[in-house]
Amino acid sequence: MADTAQFFGQLTSLLRNLSAGKRLTLVVLIVGTVAGFVLLTNWSGGVDLRPLYSNLDPEDAGAIVARLKEQKVPYRVGPDGKSILVPAETLHEIRMQLASEGLPQGGGIGFEVFDNTKLGLSEFAQNVNYQRALQGELARTISRIAEVDSCRVHLVMPEKTLFVSNEQPASASVAVKLKGGRQLSQEQIKGIVHLVSSSVPRLIPDQVTVVDNSGRLLAGNKGKSTFGALSVEQLEYQAHVEKNLEGRVKSMLDQALGDGRAIVRLACAFDFLRHEKTEEHYLGDNRVIRSEQSLSESTRNSDATPQGVPGVRSNTPGAEMLDSRNAVSAGGASAFEKQDRTVNYEIGKITSRIVEPTGKLTRVSLAVLVDGTYKQVPKKGGGTERQYVSRTPDEIQKIESIVKRAVNFDAERGDKVEVINIPFEVTEWAKADEAQASPGWLSLLGQAAPYLKAAFMGLFLLLSFLFFVKPLVRWLTEYSLSDVEIVKQLPKTVGELEREMAGMKSLPYLNQASQLVASDGEASVGAMRTWLKES
Question: Where does residue 191 rank: exposed (0-12), middle (13-18), buried (19+ CB within 10 A)?
Answer without folding.
Answer: middle
